[in-house]
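Service request form, structural biology core

Requester: graduate student, group of Dr. S.
Request type: structure prediction, single chain
Budget code: on file
Notes: please return the result as structure tokens.

Sequence provided:
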Amino acid sequence: MNELNEAESPEPVFEPLLWINKGWTARVIKNEDDEGWAVAMIKDGESEPALVGPWTMGRDKKNPKPLDASAFSTLVKTASEVIRRHEHHLYAMYHQKLAVNTESGRIIVTLDIVADEDDPYAWLAACDSNDEELARVRVEAGFKLNAASANAWIEAEFRSPT
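Core staff response, request fulfilled:
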């Protein structure tokens, strides 16, 4: 993600169908799927919209309703939440954690995927109840962490799974 600082942010624009402010651009566009209108919310520095949703028709039932401060604020809040949920989902996909009870105590096994475009891989690690690392091995990015694979790795004395 490209983060822009305030000095690089574009000047605010408040036009009926285009608002640029506070790191966001709201653009009302023709909805290609039907006769209505849509609004696209794009975060500064991003090429794709974070949110595209239906937009209200104006009083003439032909043209879109103009953007206003209240609508823009709601759109920013909604688009920000979409981004947050997406980031949480990615984090959950790339960082997994599992607790395993063993005779010597509880072991926390983690899998952290490194999504390198050329060579994706993951780190499989184990920590004891004091958060001291017991082992760390590099595994394939497609390694499936579950109770069975974690137990098998622990029982194999943390040798790299094949």
